[in-house]
Amino acid sequence: MATSLLEVTVKLRFDIHPSKTNDIFGGVKEQLNQKLMRYDEEFGGVVLAYFNETLLDTKAPILISLPYASVDVRATLLLFKPMVGRPLEGVVNKVGVDHLGVLVLGVFNASIAIEATGGAFEYDAEESCWAGSDDFHHQIREGTKIRLILRGQREVDNLLSLQGELGLEGTGSVEYLRKNAARAGEKDKGSSAKKKKKSKEKSGIHLEENGNGETRDKSAEKKKRKKSEREEEDESDGERKKRDKKKRKKDETSKRATLGETRGT
Fold first, then answer.
1. Cβ neighbours, 10 Å, residue 166
2. Which of 12, 108, 148, 227 is the most exposed place for a label (fewest CB within 10 A)?
3. Local confidence pLDDT in tens for the 265 residues of the chain
């Protein structure tokens, strides 16, 4: 999921109050602190934190009209910069009949109107939650972590408010989405195993798992066994032929001997 947090290194100019003449760096930090948790139009986001702040000059010129020291500073800012159409995650802090209240990053308020779900959710008065129209077990209640799509944002007095929507693929209760994905993964895994087995059967290969979790090829073993049986049969036939030949030879020898005795008589 695309992140809405962004680090940027920027150059800033601050006018430091005369009371901070002996502590210019302290005056810079005061001005940076004033930017925290406020929407800054220049950066298009809310400044969450700053670090690596550095003074770029050793001298601070005094303004002609006012006794302020002008200093240039380089700092890295951590911005919350959500983009319309991108996903955000937050925790539900209010469940109403026609809208949800959500806290993003535990700080920023987001609201989701029931109309912005495309009919995917309905308010359930008995459960005090929003329940999925197609799956009642897909429930959103106070404390539920959800994934929404940013539909719009508004800035008033440097404070940011967000409008979100549900009903699109990959939105809703994060826990429900995770379990659904796990079930789908198991189903795909089972389907893949069946297809693999079917393919093996078509190719004449039959696999079987023994007690040790090892797989053996039943088809190959069967072929090996048949070959051994044929070899045994061939060997038996060979021995039988040898015995018959030996017996015929013995009979012929005996027959010649009998004929010789008869002629002598």
1. 24
2. 227
3. 558 999 999 999 999 888 888 888 999 999 999 999 999 999 999 999 999 999 998 777 777 778 888 899 999 999 999 999 999 999 999 999 999 999 999 999 999 999 999 999 999 999 999 999 999 999 999 999 999 999 999 988 889 999 999 999 999 999 999 999 988 777 666 666 566 656 655 655 555 555 555 555 556 666 677 766 776 666 566 666 666 666 676 666 666 665 555 555 4
Structure tokens at 135: 């799956």
CA dihedral sign of residues 58, 60, 61, 62 = negative
Question: How does DSSP assign 120-178, residue by residue?
Answer: SEEEETTTTEEEESS-TT-EE-TT-EEEEEEEEEEEETTEEEEEEE-SSTT-EEHHHHH
- Look up residue 242 and give its amino acid: K
